[in-house]
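ok, trying the design again with the full structure, not the truncated one.
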């Protein structure tokens, strides 16, 4: 997906957060911010790729500060929030174990995104309110048909914390007899899940965990490894979690695949692109 004018302040907010999490050196942060301003002044134009721009910016911060995982503590916090609400989630599923409810819970997990929310946001309240919401777009019948007709699925995960809720949907998918391949980032970026994060959360119980070959904001087709491209190309059925993966996949030809996006529209640029309201929860087929 391409940047909008609203991406500018979002990039700068993320840069400030990442720097504050990476170093206490005020002089270094000033130097890095100057570099980021110079970088954005060169690339921030109509038609620029949003994921590639954000990825480059975060790499600049990592390289200059030497902090390889700025959101390490925030990822732990995300897991703790998810685990705190897991009993409520399981209670809901015990009352209604429909596929739609499993999908809804997985999408609610997508709210745990420190790339879209500030560190001061009351994320717990957002989750509680979201548990009462319905999906705005729900291609649930098509989704279940895909589960019934395919033998394998590629599941692109998004954030640490969110993956705690993904486990519930993955377990439901296993009931349909599919072989699941779970794709994660190769190196840390924001609070995105890496292989270690996925294994720590127990996702390896449900399928093979593979790395995409890079650490990018969302999916960036030009940066995935040859090994992952082979995996991606071999799958006709793909489940994509989160806005970043949607932003990247919406730029490539998916006509030969059945791709389902599960996300919460957490910014105006995304919501306008899809045609929904801010904070709507969505399951839709590409």
């Amino acid at each position: 997906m391409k940047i909008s004018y609203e991406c500018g302040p979002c990039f700068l907010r993320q840069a400030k957060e990442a720097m504050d999490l990476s170093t206490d050196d005020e002089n270094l942060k000033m130097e890095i911010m100057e570099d980021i301003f110079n970088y954005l002044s060169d690339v921030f134009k109509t038609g620029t790729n949003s994921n590639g721009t954000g990825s480059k910016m975060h790499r600049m911060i990592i390289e200059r500060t030497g902090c390889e995982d700025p959101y390490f503590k925030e990822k732990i916090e995300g897991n703790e929030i998810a685990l705190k609400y897991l009993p409520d989630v399981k209670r809901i599923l015990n009352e209604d174990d429909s596929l739609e409810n499993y999908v809804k819970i997985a999408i609610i997990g997508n709210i745990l995104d420190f790339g879209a929310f500030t560190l001061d946001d009351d994320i717990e309240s957002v989750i509680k309110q979201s548990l009462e919401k319905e999906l705005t777009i729900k291609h649930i019948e098509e989704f279940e048909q895909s589960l019934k007709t395919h033998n394998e699925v590629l599941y692109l995960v998004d954030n640490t914390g969110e993956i705690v809720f993904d486990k519930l949907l993955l377990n439901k998918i296993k009931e349909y007899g599919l072989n699941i391949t779970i794709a994660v980032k190769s190196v840390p970026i924001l609070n995105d899940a890496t292989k270690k994060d996925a294994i720590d959360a127990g996702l390896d119980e449900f399928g093979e965990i593979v790395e995409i070959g890079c650490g990018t904001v969302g999916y960036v087709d030009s940066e995935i490894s040859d090994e992952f491209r082979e995996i991606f190309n071999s799958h006709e059925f793909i489940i994509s979690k989160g806005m970043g993966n949607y932003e990247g996949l919406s730029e490539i030809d998916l006509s030969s695949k059945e791709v389902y996006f599960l996300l919460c529209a957490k910014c105006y640029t995304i919501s306008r692109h899809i045609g929904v309201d801010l904070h709507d929860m969505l399951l839709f087929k590409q």
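Keeping the full-length input from now on. The two ends are 14 Å apart (CA to CA).
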